Amino acid sequence: MAFLKLAGTVTKRMGMKSACYMYPVVAREFTKTTRGHVELDSADCIYCGLCQRKCPTKAIEVNRQEKNWTIQPLRCIVCSGCVDVCPKKCLRMENTYSSSVTSKF
Amino acid sequence: MTTTAITAIIVILYLIGAPILGGILAGLDRIITARMQGRYGPPVWQPFYDVLKLMSKEKAAVNKTQNFYVFCFLLFMIFTGAVFFAGGDLLLVLFALTLASIFLVLGAFSSNSPYSFIGAERELIQTMAYEPMVLITAAGMYLATKSFFVADIAAFSTPLIYYLPGIFIGFVYILTIKFRKSPFDLSTSHHAHQELVKGLTTEFSGPTLAMIEIAHWYENIFLLGIVYLFFAFNPLLGVIVALLTYFLEILIDNSNARVTWQLTMKSAWIVAATLGMANLIIVFFKLSV
Amino acid sequence: MSKRTIIPFGPQHPVLPEPIHLDLVLEDEKVVQAIPRIGYVHRGLEKLVEKQEYANMVYVAERICGICSFIHAQTCSQAIEDLLPIEVPERALYLRTIWAEMSRTHSHLLWLGLMADAFGFEALFMHCWRLREKILDMVEDTAGGRVIFGSCKVGGVRVDIEDAKLKDIVIQYNDLEKEIKEITDVFVEDYSVKHRLVDVGVMSKEDAHVLGAVGPTMRGSGVAKDMRTLGYAAYKYLKFEPVVETAGDCYARTKVRIREVFQSIDLIRQAVAQIPGGPIAVKVTGNPTGSSFQCVEQARGDVAYYLKANGTKNLERFRVRTPTFANIPPLLKMLGGCELADVPVIVLSIDPCISCTER
Prior knowledge:
The complex is a heterotrimer of chains A (105), B (289) and C (359). With 105 residues, chain A is an alpha+beta fold. Chain A has a domain at 37-96: 2-Layer Sandwich (Alpha-Beta Plaits), CATH 3.30.70.20. In chain A, 17% of the residues lie in helices and 15% in strands. In chain B, 75% of the residues lie in helices and 0% in strands. Chain B is globular and about 60 Å long. Chain C is built from twelve helices and eight strands. Chain C is globular. The A-B interface holds A 4-7, 10-11, 13-14, 16, 18-20, 22 and B 32, 34-40, 251-252, 254-256.
């Protein structure tokens, strides 16, 4: 029988740094591989529409005539599927999360 | 200055100071608890922000009478502390304390929520668990000092702890129940209660809940006052021991699971029967021979 | 004749991470009967198979649940690979195993935390989750996501872990193992914890069989049934024994999961030591036909996937039997006759994952 088995750990933790960090004040460190959000280098884009067809949530919309590429960040599930299929490699996965928004679209 | 005037000043100081001190203590509690759990924790004034916000909320009650009961709970809690710090009769103090908690139970019973209902039942069981030890504490203090008056007990020259070490340990044991801390936070707890949602206080909200919070601060200060009595021969030591006791309670809270009511009952009575009674008998014979 | 009360337990309750409703019929504080009701987070993911291409179904499967995520994706990929059929490169199989075991360690630590919370031990809860956070960081570093790994695809895996990083994972796990030991010792030895777990929610070996329990719930009752012994992915190359405890109470189920955390760490070590080089994926061509049935061991028990295809790019039928679904009848059996205070502990002891159950 052991009483107060965690007492040692909790007393030890009192003198240690918090395991959490003050999020918005202290910026989060992302790893190199983190899937954060999709970005387009529109200069190279040929508006082929492959990404639109591959997107599982239909978040990407490509208009070939108007040379227009849009993404709805709230629909995107950051699967990186579009980045994989892009023939010109002009889509890239940034390792920072997309910024907060106050309205839906 | 007459003694009456001094007493009046102490009581007024208590009325104003106890909620402030109690709130700060609650804030420190939250910070220390957070540190123990590896978190930052809220600012020390968070309990006050909470109460102020509760005050500004809509008065929604399932049953209007519950507000009356909770008001009585606060009133008798203040009364308990006031009599205690005025140096009044310890028995009156302890029974007023019981009366106050019974009002809270009535308030919980008056709403029809099953969780509040079970919480109230558990609170009664808790009361039953800690009451013997509380009475033994009063009896022990009487045996040692030959007075039930807090003023006389506080002015007693020999350290009370010298006569009543067992009773002190027993009292600290049931203090965990009174502070609503693990392992004995059966009826309600400071955070969400895993068994009863919020237990006793499930159906209270807004200003009513704020009253319960404030009453709890008064209660904590009063209970630490009793701890202080054991070391009253040296006021500084008394305060330090009271604070250390509170810290010990936080440590126990953070290194225990919640136990069942059966074990609470059994262990509290065993502690009262062994530590409490043995100490009482020894003091009785030692002082009467 | 004693008075009966009905206590609504859930769908919103402090102890429940996900919505499930139980009507608890009480006599005093004794539960006489528990009547479940589910359907609060049904999303119709199985129906999506008609709209999504088969390769995209891996994304859908992964999002069935946020904790079992990787193993869902793995099972779905396995089933589709079986239908096509294609051979997955060895390295991909090993990487899948490593990620699956990482997912198991973080899931079990999450569960240990929730269990600690269920018996009112907040500090223990926080410390379990503190350790889990380190595993999530490792997952993010290797796979790219934190709870949705997103690293599995039909035909292999999408990202490779460099050998240096694999070694680093083992080193981090070695350090973590000591910390986990410090915390899990509390579960095994502390008096107040044992007081809440031992002889609570006992289920006999026979009941476990008859009611169809799976995973740690079943292994806690003394049945050595672990789908990993089927030898899917890289498990056929690794040495391990299913973890079994015989008591059948909440304490036994807790001990099974604690031992499985260490077992998983050991499996990761073995996998890293043996992992071969080579490609991580093969090219997928053609459309699947036929039907496939896959059983894979998740953290909560075995998940069963049934996939039927008709030669088009959409599958015809996508059916998932999740472990929690199988564990609900045993749960109801355990709840009968227990104390109200033990209800949260017993409900948590099967590790309910309602999102999985309802899909």
